[in-house]
Amino acid sequence: MSLTELLLDPFQYAFFGRAMIAGIVIGAMCGALSVFVVLRRMSYIGHGLAHSVLGGVAVGVALGVDLYLGAIAATVVSALLIDRVTRRRGLHADAAIGIVTTAIFAIGVATLSIVPTRINVEAVLFGNILGVDTTDLWVAVGVGLAFAVVLLTLYKRLVFVTFDPEVAEVHGVRTGRIELVFSLSTAAVVVASVRVLGVLLIAAAVVIPAAIARLTARTFGGTLVLATVIGVLASVVGLFGSFHVNVPSGPTIVLAGASAFAIVFAVTAGMARLRVDRARRDEAEGNKLRSVRS
Questions:
Q1: Is residue 61 over pLDDT 90?
Q2: CATH architecture of the domain with residue range 3-293
Q3: What integer pLDDT is reported at residue 218 of this predicted model?
Q4: Domain boundaries of the chain, sorted by first residue
């Protein structure tokens, strides 16, 4: 099969076109979000909120309501509880995330074991490009636009709170409100990503792009832009891989990002080693010159 066929054949199917648009939007959102998540050392939040999604989906399906309603309710409740527990009781964010999201996940597992449903657990866990319909596309686009508005409107305050929340509060930034908006934005991105990435793999998608960008970019703005681009590229490559290899879309997207991280890590480590070796050689030559002169 030629390269042209590999790239164009999938678009003969309407579901792939929808999945690609949704994947690009989700990749951009996860990439941009990943910078704030990694810098805040809250990499666990994507994993935790994704588990809440499964709990909400299970309860929602059992009650006969739409999948997204259950997912939204669970993630919003999780985000609010995490924010409240963290701010009011002095617990670290990782502890609050672990307690709240694991409890909601347990509710979902218990519900699935008690109430028989027709939910496709594998698709929820690992993503499924065949399941991306028009509703999923509109949800992704709507959340993407809302997230872009939040990012553009609160960019400076988000950056300030991310790097030094105490100083930001002294300068009049309402850090509590910013933290709440960030938590709700993360919850919305997680919900929109379920169809394409799956519950178990969302956490990687909101960590890997920023990890790659931090190895190469030198400014915060550069890191944000690069992470967004990496998120999009990982989604595109992963969706093509999912179609041609016939595996769930979540694993292929994560593997595309992980492969990119491995390559960039190896290249940057090699370059750093070369710089160290060059510096040592220059120092040795300088010592020789000084010894000859003396």
A1: no
A2: Orthogonal Bundle (1.10)
A3: 85
A4: 3-293
